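Morning - nicotinamide-adenine-dinucleotide inputs below, output right after.
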Amino acid sequence: MMIISAEAGTCSYDIIVGALEHARSSLRRLAAGRTLPVVTDERVWFLHGERLAAILPVEPILVPEGEAAKDWAGLRQLIARFTAMNLDRSSPVIALGGGSIGDLTGLASGLFKRGCPVIHIPTTLLAQADSAVGGKTAIDAEGQKNLVGMFHQPALVLADVGFLDTLDERQLRAGYAEIVKYALIGHQIVFDWLEDHGHAILSGNREMREEAVRQCIAAKVRVVEADPEDRNGLRALLNFGHTFAHAIESVAGLGSVLHGEAVSIGMVLASAFSAKLGLCPASEAARVRRHLAQASLPTTLAEVRVDPGALLPLMAGDKKNQAGRLRLVLSHGIGRAFLSDGVDAEQLRQFLASVE
Ligand code: NAD
């Protein structure tokens, strides 16, 4: 077991990487004798609810699976259930599931009575390596990804890679894309390591999975501590490939392409665009694409049947843009991502017109 401590603004919390049972005392301390609501979906509750219920008294609140949970109806349902359970502001809520459940539960707990504690118990590779840490919460609205959200840091995060044994291959690969992202942003050595061990991570080696999750969490904590609310440009680096990805998800129809799959294509596009602008060696952009393809992740828009021409209008409306200027995370090479202000929309249009 390993504990990583995070300080984000005025909040500090622990992230425990290890078996859920090792976190028994931390969970019981936060619960303080109360029955805690657990927001989860039917599948995850059926597979893993018992393990949690063996540790402390919990009451499941079931929401739809995947991206479908992240909407106004889901948010309203949670607020209604929290009210019916008469939760007070100190009463923690548990999010047990993937990033969608974490995003929805994080938002509902952040809004309820102006904020009650949330404990994240992520059960997908993506949520363990990335989304459970950092306090970003959101639902989709008006056809756009993560349009409505807030920052609400967790009280505790428990990442147990044992949960991943029941995850299907597609979800696993989608989570792997976010692991590759951390390497591409600032850790060339990790990318080299992934080229050697990616297969072991995907095929179920627990030790390698835990090492990958731990490295990503440690990297994310460093970024979140330096820029807790995405204000100074540092945290924006975590969005490498994401401006393309969010547009791909919106065009494909929210939920039809998995977030990590869209991120995989987004990272290939961001690397290739960087190469086209002469910022990054073409050989490194090709290496990124090769690695993601070897992990059986989609690397082209054609694979997800998205028309490249449809992306630009959505990318122009991205949250990271400021004063009408297009902001994109680009790359000087593997492990050297940077935030570029004032990306030329015409160059981006021409690039998109040239991709598969
Ligand atoms: P998900 O939460 O959308 O779906 C997970 C699916 O896997 C569900 O069908 C669930 O039932 C199933 N599942 C979960 N755990 C399982 C297990 N252990 N065994 C078997 N099945 C299991 O998928 P995701 O990739 O975890 O999350 C994607 C979401 O995360 C997107 O909405 C994305 O926008 C969000 N996200 C948020 C952040 C953040 O910082 N807040 C970062 C990255 C992504």
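Note: The chain has a mean pLDDT of 94.

O.
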